[in-house]
Amino acid sequence: MRATIMHAPGDVRVEDRDKPAVRQPTDAVIKLVAACVCGSDLWPYRGADKISKPAPMGHEYVGIVEEVGAGVRNVRPGQFVVGSFFASDNTCDICRSGYQSACVHRQGVGGAQAEYMRVPLADGTLVATPGMPDAAKVPSLLAASDVLGTGWFAAKAAEVGPGKTVAVVGDGAVGLLGVLAAQQMGAERIIAMSRHADRQALAREFGATDIVEERGDEGVKKIKELTGGLGAHSVLEAVGTQESMLQAIHATRAGGHVGFVGVSHDVALPGRDLFYSHVHLHGGPAPVRQYLPELIDLILGGTINPGKVFDLELPLEQAADAYKAMDERRAIKVLLRP
Amino acid sequence: MRATIMHAPGDVRVEDRDKPAVRQPTDAVIKLVAACVCGSDLWPYRGADKISKPAPMGHEYVGIVEEVGAGVRNVRPGQFVVGSFFASDNTCDICRSGYQSACVHRQGVGGAQAEYMRVPLADGTLVATPGMPDAAKVPSLLAASDVLGTGWFAAKAAEVGPGKTVAVVGDGAVGLLGVLAAQQMGAERIIAMSRHADRQALAREFGATDIVEERGDEGVKKIKELTGGLGAHSVLEAVGTQESMLQAIHATRAGGHVGFVGVSHDVALPGRDLFYSHVHLHGGPAPVRQYLPELIDLILGGTINPGKVFDLELPLEQAADAYKAMDERRAIKVLLRP
């Protein structure tokens, strides 16, 4: 089969690989319908994360179940499934408390930018749609498997709710879908921080009521101006840098909540800032599995259309171009079709 | 009047100072009945905080109202009052959300280790007891003004509740009263981290079900062993160092809560630790004012006896000995009588 492999920073190739097989009785093998490039894939692409050996890429996926192990009960061959980027048993204490991405049997899921992939712990990781979805819904279902689920978790972690003012740091797909999540959760006001016209437009479409173009301390000042000097009730952080984390913390009012989902890179939070800010801080890899049933319902029912974050679609064979387009910020997010 | 002044690390003196007067219409002047030395007073005493000029010390207090400004409505001369260490208006949006220690008109309160003190924003800062309390209740009421209120906030911030396993990092007065708070809030199991027999005994009296003597990574390992490998649901941090913060974060299960109230010193939290720990982090200077009415009720009703943390009582004139006893850990907490 064909699969996307990262050999070194900037060096992504689509190559022949063995088709994966069921190895454990809890595995499933799926034939991918669509996959995509993640903002977090750009960290190694840009050399910010080490690549020790050629790495099969991709962890966002929808597909058709091809084969399941003898122990799999919840999905069967022929079903359309949406998965999450950590495999989880969905039965341990941690999963049952809603943190499937910290499951005691957690396993990474990888190699989704390919024709086929193996998904461990299939029963606790995959969610089948009721019947075969329309082709038009595929991008949105694909978004649910990571960026939507992650934006959703950020909004939950930031305790977004009716009557609240929400600010979103980061205008990538996750930040934009954080805006959508905040809107769905009833936020009164949603401030998107972005300096790109196309992303601003999508943020507004997803529910943003205000746009702030400033960053860092200037951005914080602007948020305070918009909130009577107090800061936002809820701030979603979807970047993962020191600047974005401090921007989020400082833009939050005392007693407010920061939901952070940007994969943390070289961040060291000063204790005093945290102590005197009086914010609640919560985040990490999103427990997407928790939200999949609800998100799939919202998508299939036509309530939300998160697939709009895909502004470029390419055949799998052009995966290298997909990385390039995202790296150069020519595309918000690229969908790949095997 | 006599007042305690810190001139330099290790140099605490009781000296003559002008008796404070009402300056603003919202001020009250109180005659102190009791004050005490705080764990946070030891930071400058040990040279960890700078002392730029001679500093009047003390921010924990109970007393009798001597005089009030023309605008004060809620307390009157002759009343016994308990105060908090930040003055707050108790009417702004931040106060009404429960964060009086981040009041938009917040002012520090100081100079309580003295005969008299001025309390700004008296209406929003002081709470009068119903009638004159028994002398036996004074230490507990004094504890409410900081260490109990702070331990209480740590437990609230860590979302302690029925059925939960709680760990407490720090065996000073705040940590010990965090144990008491956790017990009052219905925790199923309370693990106190302490290696001092006298503090362990008091922790058990306050409700600790387990004691862990190990610190750092060893302490974390022990907490995991006691919690099926998962970590505690709620961890209270009452020290303020890098080691204690990481100990608290690592001892908390995914999805659990850390309540941190130790005044942060040289702490820089690694973003990746926070990100992958999946904990909720919340803390800061405790909004003691929020809890005072409830705590006063519990104390006067005889439900709790937090005054037990005072294991040494000295006349104000011996304030220097009080600091020395706490610095050398010969006393958990010293009560001063003017």
From TrEMBL, chains A, B:
Stretches assigned to coiled coil = none
Q: Which UniProt keywords apply?
A: Metal-binding, Oxidoreductase, Zinc
Q: Which CDD domains match?
A: FDH_like_ADH3 (cd08287)
List cofactor names only.
Zn(2+)
The answer on whether this UniProt entry bears the keyword Nucleotidyltransferase reads: no
Q: Which residues form the signal peptide?
A: none
Lineage top rank: taxon: Bacteria
User: Which part of the chain is the Enoyl reductase (ER) domain?
Assistant: 7-336
Q: Which InterPro entries match?
A: ADH-like_C (IPR013149), ADH-like_N (IPR013154), ADH_Zn_CS (IPR002328), ER (IPR020843), GroES-like_sf (IPR011032), NAD(P)-bd_dom_sf (IPR036291)
Family in the record: Belongs to the zinc-containing alcohol dehydrogenase family.
What PANTHER family has UniProt attached to this entry? DEHYDROGENASE, ZINC-CONTAINING, PUTATIVE (AFU_ORTHOLOGUE AFUA_2G02810)-RELATED, ZINC-TYPE ALCOHOL DEHYDROGENASE-LIKE
Name under which the protein is recorded: Threonine dehydrogenase-like Zn-dependent dehydrogenase
